[in-house]
């Protein structure tokens, strides 16, 4: 369910599933969005070829990597705190080398080496294929930096090593970068311009996952709806493509159909959709294929037309409502979730009320809500004063979260007495006697284990619920098994 993993949480330490016989040990932590977790699997794959085994114990690692997030200041602070911890470990194990990957690496570049003395290596999101060289350099006692952004790199030819896997669900990246330039967002600067991955390599990755018993994939991109494969190159250069390239281009709804038809038993999710780019075709394709999960993460950020404009979100609240109405009409059982930014510069009480009003109209199933955090280099930072007082941001955020909780409770309650199909992912957090899985709508469901196993599709009758969780009992296997 989680798109953005709370940066306050400890980063997950990751374990390589296939042991490679060699002596060097890699410890890797990831923060931020799903794309970062997916990228860490690419990094592990590239370094496995160099003979690195992953370890869960930082103390025994030769190389410690942290895949970082820059989306909010707090995310960056979390990483800086972790570097202090790494420093303490390095005192015990002086041979240990430390590398910073991801969005903070791209944003700070070689400044990182000055600001954080513990760091030996800084590698941006498009430079992971250079890791073998960079690791060799730091092995020779030098510092190493590669933060070059690419027009082509999609890592389409790297088979990710599945880290920390439950063997049931996996991420498959389909685009990299973003061209949208929302004024608050650092991603276009840290991940570069948008490129799409060859559908053939996506299909191969999914096939490989299916053969290994995976049952659910999430197609990942900053803005999946603008996926467009025309033979390679940046999305913004599509106009220059040849007639032949245009005639054979593949868009997101076509990619969804390709994947859904090739693997009718595989559950397919995708994240993230952008309201301005989501087309009716995508909604209709979702309706056509039972295996495409009925959940759309559709961040809106604000319910005020004035703020949406300041954010350079290229749609109005009325257009957003139209999209929601179409989703409700074509996919009545579909869940919808949101991201909201509270306290964007110049946000008034009236703008805030518009956001609450929009939420009341949509009644989202769940959402991720944060106060605005000014990011260096973004248009908002350069043009607008961060003028909403911190206390106002906090009190508005509390109101928004409370309203979302009310709506989440409303949505989960609609399932009482119904039977839902659940894919079992693992133990319930609260009880080893219960399984945890998700419905097509992405709602977490728990039920007694009985004879069922991880990776099975089970029909569950819902008897109780909390705000975010359904509680029930299995009544048999679903036809998808
Ligand atoms: N399209 C992307 C969005 C990445 S950022 C995706 O695939 O998820 C994820 C969310 O972080 C955004 O939707 C937004 O709600 C939030 N966010 C981005 N920049 C922010 C900022 N400067 N302050 C607060 N929240 C921000
Ligand atoms: Fe950021 Fe907007 Fe792209 S939120 S990732 S610039 S769609």
Please tell me about this protein's structure.
This protein is α/β, with parallel strands linked by helices and 481 residues long. The protein has three domains: 24-146, Methylthiotransferase, N-terminal domain (Rossmann fold); 169-413, tm_1862 like domain (pyruvate-formate lyase- activating enzyme), CATH 3.80.30.20; 419-477, Nucleic acid-binding proteins (OB fold (Dihydrolipoamide Acetyltransferase, E2P), Beta Barrel). 33% of the residues lie in helices and 23% in strands. It has helices at residues 34-48, 73-92, 103-108, 111-115, 131-139, 187-191, 199-211, 243-247, 252-262, 280-288, 305-310, 317-330, 349-362, 379-383, 390-413; strands at residues 4-5, 12-13, 24-30, 32-33, 52-54, 63-68, 97-102, 121-123, 144-146, 169-173, 175-176, 195-196, 216-220, 228-229, 250-251, 267-271, 295-297, 335-342, 366-371, 419-427, 434-438, 444-448, 457-465, 469-477. Strands 2, 3, 5, 6, 7, 8 and 9 form a seven-stranded mixed β-sheet that branches. A five-stranded mixed beta barrel has the order 20-21-22-24-23. Strands 10-13-16 form a three-stranded parallel β-sheet, sandwiched between helices. The two termini are 22 Å apart. S-adenosyl-L-homocysteine is lined by residues 3-4, 33, 71-72, 184-185, 187, 222-223, 272, 299, 301, 339, 341, 370, 372-373, 375. The site of S-adenosyl-L-homocysteine has 19 residues, from β18. One of its GO terms (cellular component) is cytosol. Residues 24-140 form the MTTase N-terminal domain. Monomer. Residues 164-411 form the Radical SAM core domain.
């Amino acid at each position: 369910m989680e798109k953005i993993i709370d940066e306050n949480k400890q980063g997950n330490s990751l374990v390589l599933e296939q042991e490679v016989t060699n002596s060097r040990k890699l410890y890797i932590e990831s923060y931020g969005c799903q794309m970062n977790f997916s990228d860490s699997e690419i990094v592990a794959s590239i370094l496995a070829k160099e003979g690195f085994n992953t370890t869960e114990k930082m103390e025994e690692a030769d190389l410690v990597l942290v895949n970082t997030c820059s989306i909010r200041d707090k995310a960056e602070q979390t990483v800086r705190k972790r570097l202090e911890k790494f420093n303490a470990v390095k005192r015990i194990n002086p041979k240990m080398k430390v590398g910073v990957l991801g969005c903070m690496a791209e944003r700070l570049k070689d400044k990182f080496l000055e600001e954080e003395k513990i760091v030996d290596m800084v590698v941006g999101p498009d430079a992971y294929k250079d890791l073998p060289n960079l690791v060799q350099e730091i092995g020779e006692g030098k510092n190493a930096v590669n933060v070059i952004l690419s027009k082509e790199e999609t890592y389409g030819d790297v088979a990710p090593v599945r880290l920390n896997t439950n063997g049931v669900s996996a991420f498959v990246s389909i685009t990299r970068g973003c061209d949208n330039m929302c004024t608050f967002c650092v991603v276009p600067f840290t991940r570069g311009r948008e490129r799409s991955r060859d559908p053939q390599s996506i299909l191969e990755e999914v096939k490989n996952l299916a053969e290994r018993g995976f049952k659910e994939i999430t197609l990942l991109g900053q803005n999946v709806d603008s996926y467009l494969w025309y033979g390679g190159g940046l999305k913004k250069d599509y106009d220059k493509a040849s007639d032949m390239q245009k005639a054979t281009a593949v868009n997101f709804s076509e990619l969804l159909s390709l994947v859904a038809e090739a693997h009718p038993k595989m559950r397919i999710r995708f994240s993230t959709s952008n309201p301005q780019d989501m087309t009716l075709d995508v909604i209709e394709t979702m309706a056509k294929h039972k295996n495409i999960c009925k959940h759309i993460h559709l961040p809106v950020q604000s319910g005020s037309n004035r703020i949406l404009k300041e954010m350079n979100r290229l749609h109005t609240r009325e257009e957003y409502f139209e999209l929601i109405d179409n989703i409700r009409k074509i996919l009545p059982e579909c869940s919808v979730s949101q991201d909201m930014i509270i306290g964007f510069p110049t946000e008034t009480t009236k703008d805030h009320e518009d956001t609450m009003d929009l939420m009341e109209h949509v009644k989202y199933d769940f959402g991720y809500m944060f106060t605005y955090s000014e990011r260096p280099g973004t248009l908002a930072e350069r043009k607008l004063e961060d003028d909403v007082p911190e206390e106002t941001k906090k009190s508005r955020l509390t109101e928004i979260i409370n309203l979302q909780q009310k709506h989440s409770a409303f949505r989960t309650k609609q399932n009482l007495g119904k039977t839902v199909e659940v894919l079992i992912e693992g133990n319930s957090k609260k009880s080893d006697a219960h399984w945890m899985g998700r419905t097509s709508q992405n709602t977490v469901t728990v039920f007694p284990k009985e004879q069922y196993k991880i990776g099975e599709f089970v029909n569950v009758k819902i008897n109780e619920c909390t705000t975010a969780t359904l509680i029930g009992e299995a009544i048999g296997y679903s036809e998808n098994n």
